[in-house]
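Following up on my earlier message about SN-glycerol-1-phosphate. Here are the inputs again, as you asked, copied directly from the submission form:
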Amino acid sequence: MNILDKIQSKSGQLALLIDPEKTKNEEHLLELIQKAEFALIDFFFVGGSTVTRKEVESVVSKLKKNSEIPIVLFPGSSNQLSEQADALLFLNLISGRNPDFLIGHHVSCAEEVLEMNLEVIPTSYILIDGGKMTSVAYVSQTTPIPRENNSISLKTGIAGYLMGQKLTYFDAGSGAVQSVPPQLIQELKKKIDTPIIVGGGIRSIEQIEAYKNVGANVIVIGNKIEENIDFLLDIETYQKSSFRAR
Ligand code: 1GP
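Thanks, got it. Here's what our run produced:
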């Protein structure tokens, strides 16, 4: 099964976001991999706002060597590539109006990506205000959509779908104080049939459950696990209890 089909296959899948800039220590990365395996994490997402290619390649190669969990590149710029990953989210930052993140980075890496053995997934990337200035908003020099304005967010999601994007990623930004409103996902799900990813400021099992219930295909967690790796143990307990409940 390719990665997009796996993403589409069900709701409530979990991705662990690894920012290579924050995981330089190999021992820590190996612990993360082991706990992620126990927690039945579905994907590793790799990327960050200011990460170098060398850092991405090094982390991806360690993940590949030590785990079977699929690796998806979630790049902050055109140089965050690695041939060893399984897929690349080819992000179009359509909540913003910065041409660099709508077409510029894409042109820069186009030939190289075409030649790589990567599944390329065209993705509507939509930033929702998460209650504080996040690195992604600063680095991309774009303004996130006001979180109380579901109508603009919804229309942006639909526009991306009509433009042929295969995936929608709603992101409140890493370390957001408030995560994306679940209602937004519920509403978009009624309008389009492509999968939805949500991330930014997700810090509890209750939030994971809420996103799963509205049909989010993948729920991305980064910061919370960077701060406390044992949150993966809570996820493990949650995952095993929800498997039993089936
Ligand atoms: C950010 O969606 C990701 O792009 C994850 O955010 O680090 O807040 O979990 P957190």
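One observation from looking it over: The first strand starts at residue 13 and ends at 18. Hope that helps, and feel free to reply on this thread.
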